[in-house]
Records
---
Amino acid sequence: MAEQQPNTNKPIKPFKLLGVVFGMFCFGFALVPLYDVICDVTGLNGKTGARYEVSEALEVDETRWVTVQFTTSNNADMPWEFVPTDVVLKVRPGEINETFFTAKNTTGQRMTAQAVPSVAPFYAAEYLHKTECFCFNQQVLEAGESIEMPLRFFVDAEIPERVSKLTLSYTLFNLPEVAANSL
Amino acid sequence: MLSKAIPWMRLSIGSFLLFSASVKADWEVNMTPGVTEVSQQVYDLHMIIFWICVAIGAVVFGIMFWSIFAHRKSLGVKPATFHESTLVEIIWTAVPFAILIGMAIPATSALIDAYDTAESEVDIKITGYQWKWHYDYLEEGVGFFSNLSTPADEINNLATKNENYLLEVDEPLVVPINKKIRFLVTANDVIHSWWVPEIAVKKDAIPGFVNEAWTIIPTPGIYRGQCAELCGKDHGFMPIVVEAKTQADYDVWLVDRKEAAAKERELRDKVWTLEGLMERGEKVYATNCAACHNADGSGIPPAFPALKGSAIATGPIEDHIKIVLDGKPGTYMAAFGPQLSPVELAAVITYERNAWGNSKGDFIQPIDIANMQAAE
Amino acid sequence: MSAVLESHGHDHHGPAKGLMRWVYTTNHKDIGTLYLWFSFIMFLVGGSMAMVIRAELFEPGLQIVQPEFFNQMTTMHGLIMVFGAVMPAFVGLANWLIPMMIGAPDMALPRMNNLSFWILPFAFALLLSTLFMDGGAPNFGWTFYAPLSTTYAPSTVTYFIFGVHIMGASSIMGAINIIATILNLRTPQMTLMKMPLFVWTWLITAYLLIAVMPVLAGVVTMMLMDIHFGTSFFSAAGGGDPVLFQHVFWFFGHPEVYIMILPAFGIVSQIIPTFSRKRLFGYTSMVYATSSIAFLSFIVWAHHMFTVGLPLAGELFFMYATMLIAVPTGVKVFNWVATMFKGAMTFETPMLFAVSFVVLFTIGGFSGLMLAIAPVDFQYHDTYFVVAHFHYVLVPGAIFGIFAAVYYWLPKWCGNMYDEKLGKLHFWLSFVGMNLTFFPMHFVGLAGMPRRIPDYALQFADFNQIASVGAFIFGATQWLFLFIVIKAIRNGKKATPEVWDNPEGLEWTIPSPAPYHTFTTPPDVK
């Protein structure tokens, strides 16, 4: 028979543990915006930002060139023609440039598309600013319709010396639910 | 007498070496040092870590096995009573920690090198598809698909497997030696991964995002790799072949490729016969469609419908064209309009409508396909 | 009936009669038994899938199954072994042993204990039934990366998600129960630092479980929403990112693999001292080492993602943190060896499994250290080198740990000794089979063979054939294990309360078989 000893147990209520469970479940979902915030702040996964508002006059760096390549891809369910007008441009940091992309709906029905940009190397993404981009909105094209879409951008003058070339890639996705809902 | 024997000796020694080389490859136990500076760095790092592990293992297991041998009850030993020592704990925490620091230094240096994609001379976009690769030479305007070229008969054990079984493609990625090549890796559908062991490049291909890798290959040669991320049923059947050529040979290849693209455009404009379309169509079908719909058109229902006797292949040609060009969203049927040329499209549609007893008798001209795609 | 003094007089009844006993039981011993039998059945089911895989990989070419079905086999094999065999087996051991080891009469929440078990057969019946549904079973790997597992998944993916939720709930409830039991119900004199190491490792494992299983629940919920409710967590089209899936999954996934090994560490830490006739070396250090491993397990997840395109700083951080885990793990190995050193060892079956655990798990640890080196991982990632690594830590790690535990404690559970000769045979056949299967995988992985492929280039053929032979040996041997267990239960030699030579622990102070209710009054601990 055990004598009366001071109980060395530090009791815990199981209820408290449920709190941990609930908290970690929420943490899992919190990882989603957290991931986006970290990527936005650091430009780490090549995602470029939203429309860039130019607040003051930009200083152009005349001492160097940055080569910007443009390339396009279609995602699996996207049959449109989608090509860049310029495959490569040499630009001065700080100078606003304009180029175009042509998209054509080669199918027999109206479709909605979303272009998603990605920059390589990813650490250059935070230095590529778009003042006007077709990727800001969804594109709706009727059957057979084609459109020339502008991209207005500049490379930040603060871009590190080691980046002399960067590639801006657009992937075009089909948004069938959006198209279905808009009919 | 000896002089007569020498050619025979040369032949037999030569063939023995060749034989043993290929046999040796079968029992390969180690990573390849590869052909680039980076791959050699990676290999060296791998060997250093390996030998450190062997050394630690030898010491630890040595002590253990000695103990198993010498400290057995059956030998009549009495067990000692020691059961703790702070000093010893500190030592065997600190020593491994120091060894790790020693490993981390060359590892860090190798990683920094592998990440340095700046100042490239050739840029190639690599896109992973289910289940093939697409190579796009940015700034050259050259692009093509690269499909597994091992015959289905070899895979299904109806023909002897050749030396490069599952590691051969119809169109290799051709690159020049001694130039810094930057790879931009992305995907069309699911995540794939582009891997060539001999240049120590492995990069995941993620739909909607572009990853970077680089290499400089000093030696002409053929280097083979495979997809390294589960991507669906034919993940094991989408290999990579890189062919490194001298600058001169590469330049010739590039010119040839551009001319071939121009020729394909010319072919689009001419009038084709049914037989011509069938002949071309069979090849296109084998490369692009047979993986899912089978060589005999039987498919793998329900995910991959049969084409033999199907409503689409024997119904109105407009619907058939539409599904080949635009795909069927929500299923595995991709949009082949952007992937194949008008000649290939016209040929494969014609083939599907007339093969395996479908015998519709109708066919479509490449120029009509091109006009459909261009129509307002 | 029992020679034990505890008797609370009024309603001392034995177990209920008939099959319904098992449905309604809230007794930790019964529930432990249910978990163990369930996990063994799942082990055989998952094992048969491995046999299909190895049969197909016996030779180059497609002989037995088509690639679509092969992908279902690899996926289901992983899911069943991880969630159906290893985890429930450890929970079963926890149920049987923890109350006895801490001098408690039962688990803290006996009815929740019953629920935790019974939802498992339901979940696995659901998961296994997908094999017979249109579209086939899940085929996207046990790691189910998006978008292969969302946009491109068969329709059965929804059942998969449901099954994962249920298994997760079972694990979470089990973990809560274990924490509550250990922290609330120890016999008063048993301070935390007097607990057996098996209890310690399970306490730490249980905290890991409640921390990360909810994250798994979160990620499969996100999948469900992407598939059915038009969200874009993992699709770039809607502003999401497939790599986000990998981050969230592996945030769960890495601690998960430690969840699958920590209890085995505890088991081995109980067995080696007994058969060395020497106390465990460095008890305090072992507790700290296990805690460090658990803590570090939260900050290394992206070492599963070295080829995904992480920024350099991130890649370096995860490389360093992963290498760091080798330190506390090494400390544990050294402590086990120091326990054996200058002991007086005998090598009964539990000791054979425990000693081979130390050797072979360490080999798995070495390949893990090699994998941690990020630039070299570019050559190892998604190859058979990884498959070799994790099978070395899981098979001679977790599974041998479980075998060792069963041999060690079965006489306590059922009152009879197992046949020692047959036990040793099971060990040697398993040891040979396991090594024959997985050692060659290091070679083919290094030589360039990727994972998850049903067919391979010719230079990989020879080692694959050896691996398949080893797998068949290993698989067949497990039927011998079943025979040994049943034979022991039915007509093994009677066991004493102590069973072994002066083992430490409260469970050896009660009769064998352990009475249905034990420690209804808290025992003394010196």
Note: Confidence is low (pLDDT under 50) at residues 17-22 of chain B.
---
Amino acid sequence: MSIWVFDVGQGDAIFIDADVDALVDGGPTNIIIEKLSLILPFWDRSIDLIVNTHPHADHLSGLIDVLSRYQVDQVWTTGQVYQTGASDAFASMSQQINKIVLAGSSIKLQENVTLDVFWPSTSLQGKVLEDPNDGSIVMLLTCFNSRILLTGDLGAKQSELIQAAIGDIDVLKVGHHGSATSLSTEFLEVINPEVAIISVGENDYGHPSTSVLDRLESIGVDTYRTDINGDVRVICSEDGYQVTIYKQQ
Amino acid sequence: MISLTPSTIMRTLCLAFIAGVAFMSWGFVFSVTVSVLGLIFIIGQHQSLNTQVCIGLLCLTIVGMSFGLWRYAQSYPSDRSIASIVGQEVLLDAVVVDTSVNHSWQHLTFSDLRVGNQDFADRLILTTTSYPRFSYGDQVQVRCEIETPEPIDNFAYDRYLATKDIWATCFSYQVWKKAEGGGNVFMTNLLFVRSRFIGKMDQVFGEPQGSLLVGLLLGEQRFTDAWQDRFLKTGTTHIVAASGYNISVVLKIALAFFAMINIKRQKAFAFLVSAIVAYILLAGADAAVFRAGVMGVVLLLAYQTERKTSMVNILLTTVVVMLMVNPRLLRDDVGFQLSMVSTIGLIYLSPILKNKLRWLPENFVIRESVIATLAATFASLPILLLQFGTFSFVSLITNVFVLPWIPLAMTWGLIATLLGFVSVHLGALISAPAWLALSAMLWEVKIFAGLNFYAQSIHWIVISIVLVGWGMILLRIFINRNSYVLN
């Protein structure tokens, strides 16, 4: 079983390659199709689950291409309203298979592998958030004995609300591309990751921020960045987990 | 008494017309060069020359050139051009006639432009966000500031747009769809079928195989920048464009098919023309595709007649007809130029190269691939150097490796896509041979591009030396043309 954090530029696209496979966000462009085609056999034209953590384009746009090119069984969203052309297109394409999720939602991906939702704590269906990032779906992937936290673009303030429930983890997909407000020292101390992965590309926002990188370094976390390391793969089994990187020439 | 033959009259008129258009496009020096070369060509073909013939040629030249000058003058924007209100922010009503998506942006070409009560006769290109998507025939309203197109780096984008009768651009986040079905009914249905076909192909194939197939079968260019760069570096961009070359591949497949079922080439002519028409329709039937289709028919005639003299007339007529429709192509549409010279190369140089390269193996169409690539590359060398200042040293070898896969990829890709309409999973399973061929082509392009044997921003002195050498080789071929025929 493996988790791929793809290098899709400035955005997020994470693929969980399990018996029930899941794509968490699709990045800002259709490059996700090329990434999926590289790891899925050519005859496999279906994806069981798509999760859109929140409706910002750098997480959502690629999913529209995935929906039009793959047979998708189920789509998870928070139901928060965000009126853009891309968000409307995604909503209309996934209408029949959309499921609104919140903390407590869960799915078994294969034996000993589960995906549990920790945020949002209440239903966001029909709500308009001042900052859509605050409504990001946060999920913990438990893979045998390894725990991998997928945070969408959730900021430090909201993260601290769920840190106790999450507890100690092994791998952290850092929130909001490593922005200055994505990660607090307190949150890091509670979840205590060994490995951090930052999904980031060329950008004008200063992502990832040096303060976040310093914070991770100070507690001895091995940090991988998709803009430097390329696609990051975490392979997990009953013996633990292993991180490998694939940099395309 | 010696007089002008109908063939000479036609050639003189055609060349003079092209010279007239060239004069308007480039100016005096180029036009004189074209005229002098044209006259040398005609006089060279005309064994006996007397005063009467000379006066006749001169009169014909004046008539043809005047017509060329007049036609080009007609292509300037009229008083009713949207360019007349550049700088104004307006609420514009229009009909979408073309769409393309690039990264996060959507480019929409508008016609039937109207601002308030004022109608405009030309077109405009709008850039907006990639969603919501618009389609051909959508009637839209947009608020934007009308701008003049500008050259991008070394690319004369403004002049290129002018070939499509587009004299203004605008950018807006606010585009409202008011109604559908504002376009031509035939085109609406054609593009609907085409988009369904592409949609199914996309469900059956992943990436980048899907983009390669859609380029091969439908001339749709949608590769990522990284892949476009690789095609450029290996001189293989032509295989994924709706080019004259692409059409000739369709022809070769059709020829092979008819040979297989024992129908003679002559009898198959009508069927092959139908195949070209089908390709033109599938590729979206826009002007560039249509021109590529016409060049395909010209190639077909060349295979058919084997009489090189009548081919000169056919080629000249084709160029003149295309320039009559759109005189701006001559200078500003590289696609038109490349399509034209590579067709000339394929017709005239292929037989010569065939003689010289008999030692090459015929297996897997290796010999044909080498000949076709050499002929097309040699003929288009000046345009590539002058327009782009680039040259790929691995072009020949990459093409030789890539081209043989094309018939398999196209035929099997088509079969898998059609089966996809029955079941996507069935189509995907059956697609194995096409997937293999497409993957092999992409792998080869990637490997050769990685070698980086590619020169860009070539110095003008180097270009001049190469062009002189090119001219000398061409002259030698021209002088020895009779011995080649004897061979």
Note: The domain at 2-246 of chain A is CATH 3.60.15.10 (Metallo-beta-lactamase; Chain A).
